[in-house]
Every structure is written in C-alpha cells, then in structure tokens.
Design goal:
454 residues; Helicase, Ruva Protein, domain 3; 5-stranded parallel beta sheet; 12% strand
Length: 454
C-alpha cells in the first residue's frame, strides 16, 4: 500500500518507515503537518498515519482535510497525549483507528493487515456492484441510424399515455424497448409489470391478467391480484400478444375502453390507471386477416406502432453490442483481443436469433476462452452455418402454394424499397421502376401500412 507518515519525532519516523518498507509498503514521510497535507493534495495515498501534535497543521486537521479531499482515505492517528476526548474526536471525524505511544510495531502492522483485507473486500464489492449494474442495465445499445430512428420515436411517445404496439422478431429486444418507454415516461417511478402470453396456460391467463376471488373456481383457495392491478398507475407490458386466446381478447378490449376490470368470480368493477404496451413477434395485421386476432382490438393496440429491426439489418451495431455483453458477463479481459477477423466473422453471420443470440455467443466466448484469450473454435458454428443461398433453396417448403410464395416475395421486395426510401411511396416506386399507383395497389393487397404518402 502507499502510505503517508506524518511524525515529528525523527527516531520514531525513521523506525516506522523502515518497518513499513520491510513489509513491502511504499512510504513517504514528513515531519511537518503543512508539508504532509500538500503531499496529500497532490498524491493518492491508501493510508495516512499521523501524529496529533505536529509543527504546522495538527493531526486532527490533516484527518478532516484529507477526508474532505477523499472520503474513502484511511487515517490512523498516533499520539503520546491520549485522552478519551481526543480519541472520540478523531473517530468522530473518520479516523480508522487510534494508537497510543509507546506502541508495538506489531500493533500497527496488524491494523494495516486488516486495512489490506478491508480494501480487498471493498474492491470486490465495487466490482460486484458494477457487474450487477450491467446485468440490470436496461439501456438500448447501438448507434446505427435504425436504432436512432426508433429511439427518437420512443422518446417522442414515452411522455404520452398512448398504447404502443412493438413488433419485431424474437430476440430483437421488445421488452427492453417497452422498459425504455416506461423509463422515459411520467410513470417511471411506478411499477413496470411484464407478462408473456405464450408461457401462461390458456385456462389461467384470464385469472393472471385480471385476478380472481376466493372460490371463483376449483383451486382458488384465496384472492389473487392480477397483473392489471399490480401495474396500477404504472405500465403493463403484454408480450406475445399474438398468442392471447381469442375469448380473452374481448375482455382486454373492454378493459382498454372502460379502464376498469372485474376479477374472475366477482361482479365488482375496479377502476385502473395503466399504460398498456404490447409486443408481437409476427405481423399482427396478418393475424387479423386470418381471423386469429380481433380487428377492433388490433386498432386499439396499434395507436403507436414501433418496428424493431432484426440484427441482420443493423450489423454495424455488433461491435458495440459485443463489448457491452463482454462487460455485462465479466469478460472485460477479452475486449483487448477483439480484432477485425472476429468482427468480420460476426458481420457475415445472418443472426436468426438476433441480439439474444449474440449475447449467447458472447457468454460462449467467455466460457470457452481461458487465459484471457479468445478461442477461435467459438466461431466455427457461425462459419459453418448455411448461407442465405442454401436457406432460400428450402424456403418454398414453408408455403402452401405458389401464389402465397410469390406474395411473400413481393412483400419482401416492397418493404426493401420502402426501407431504402425512408418509407416514401413515390421514392419507393422509382426504385422499383413501377408506377406509383401500381405500388399502392400492391401495398393495399399485401396489407403493407408502414409508409408515408408523398
């Protein structure tokens, strides 16, 4: 440890310096309080050992001023003039310990050993706090234009209480997007409650959403508060809304209209004040066409649509995401070994699992890369994955007939042109080299709604 020793007695100062140096500590000594304090201002010391009575600034003033400069600095007071009052005063101002002359060097070394152990524990605690902060970090990572675009939308709509529908493939970060909206909203200090319709059995979802009274059904042995009541005054995030049973959709629509719920087994109406954010992994409009999702509910939910791009459409964010995940999962020591070859491999991969898959790969890098290096074998599954051409050869197998396949391809091409033209129909028609009226007709037929008239 780096130690400052302030002691005006030459023999004591010299002997303590020799003892501490022999124990591998770095020691800087002074016989004057003012000189000692000037050194404290210019240097970072782990421990200050000071006599109370010194020429110039006394030990108590050194203690107080040092603590003002750095509240974490550890100060040990030594003196030949001991009293209960001076001991209490020193401890009151933050002294770690108090030694009375004459004292054995073993006493001081024992205190320093305890300090060393304390600093180790505090350092580990600080590292754990940083790890926890990263694990709990709900910030959207990325600097690409696509991320900036939907972040601008989030910041615009968050302060308002409109219902939001987030659409994106699995692993694109829909819950993270919902949390970000909540954190930018006026409800940020209230509850954020998340529910996933895909993982709750159909027989229980009504009870989970709206709650139930004791005896409402077999097994209802006590009253249960549902997610809507838990989220009251806050935000309720309903993920995989496309998996919500059709009969529950009617009840959700009523809640959105009336802003009140009734628990299962009760006729009492309970007023609620909840902001609703929903997410879907599929095109919800198509589910409406297929009569699997209520049209009236769709329009109630789709007041503010947000489309999250898949990772393959924002690959420029991969380096930033990779570094974030390495820090999050304790792999900071691997960052220095990242290079262009690794980034190139990650850029070539198509990322069907999106950001979630990249996080899984990052954890694999940490687990399979000992000695601070990065094991190249981690990337072999990515290098050996089937390329887009091979995937396209089997793509037709997922369609029932030729017309469905062609319609899907037309939709892909039109969406590509709209993306290139910032969703401007006129510009997209020029890119595709077709009349604007033809493009509008096809878009209506294919239920493409993410465009701007011009």
């Amino acid at each position: 440890m780096k130690i400052l020793l302030a002691e005006d007695e030459k023999i004591t100062r010299k002997s303590l310096t020799d003892i501490l140096t022999a124990e591998k500590h770095e020691v800087v000594s002074f016989d004057n309080g003012n000189q000692a304090y000037e050194s404290i201002k210019k240097n970072d010391y782990d421990v200050i050992i000071t006599d109370i009575r010194l020429p110039g600034m006394n030990g108590i003033d050194i203690l107080k001023n040092a603590k003002e400069l750095n509240p974490k600095i550890i100060v040990i007071i030594i003196t030949a003039y001991a009293s209960v009052e001076t001991a209490v005063e020193a401890l009151k101002f933050g002294a770690y310990d108090y030694l009375i002359k004459p004292f054995s060097p073993v006493q001081l070394l024992s205190i320093l050993q305890h300090i060393d152990q304390l600093k180790l524990v505090l350092s580990e605690n600080e590292n754990l706090k940083k790890r926890i902060a990263l694990l709990e970090d709900k910030t959207i990572i990325g600097s690409s234009e696509k991320v900036k675009s939907f972040m601008n939308t989030i910041k615009t709509v968050a302060p308002q209480d409109y219902t939001v529908l987030i659409q994106g493939e699995s692993g694109t970060g829909k819950e993270l997007c919902a949390r970000t909206i909540h954190n930018f909203s006026t409800r940020k200090n209230k509850n954020f409650i998340a529910i996933n319709c895909a993982v709750i059995p159909e027989t229980l979802i009504e009870s989970e959403l709206f709650g139930h009274e004791k005896g409402a059904f077999t097994g209802a042995i006590k009253k249960h508060i549902g997610y809507f009541e838990k989220a009251n005054e806050g935000t309720l995030f309903i993920d995989d809304i496309d998996d919500l049973p059709y009969n529950i959709q009617v009840k959700l629509l009523r809640v959105l209209q009336e802003k009140e719920i009734s628990r299962v087994g009760s006729t009492e109406s309970i007023p609620i004040d909840v902001r609703i954010i929903c997410a879907s992994k599929v095109d919800l409009k198509q589910k409406v066409v297929e009569k699997q999702f209520r049209e009236d509910l769709y329009y109630r939910l789709n007041i503010i649509p947000i489309f999250l791009p898949p990772l393959r459409k924002r690959k420029e964010d991969i380096p930033e995401l990779l570094i974030h995940f390495l820090k999050k999962h304790g792999g900071e020591d691997k960052i220095q070994f990242l290079n262009d070859d690794i980034y190139s491999t990650l850029q070539k991969y198509n990322w069907p699992g999106n950001v979630r898959e990249l996080e899984n790969i990052t954890e694999r890098i940490i687990a399979l890369s000992p000695n601070n290096l990065i094991n190249p074998a981690v990337f072999e599954p990515l290098l050996n994955s089937p390329d887009k051409t091979e995937q396209d050869k089997t793509a037709f197998e997922h369609y029932d007939n030729f017309d469905q396949y062609i319609s899907n391809k037309e939709k892909e091409i039109i969406n590509w042109a709209l993306e290139k033209s910032s969703n401007n129909v006129t510009a997209a028609a020029k890119i595709l080299k077709i009349p604007r009226t033809t493009l509008r007709s096809k878009m209506e037929k294919l239920l493409i709604t993410n465009y701007n008239e011009s």
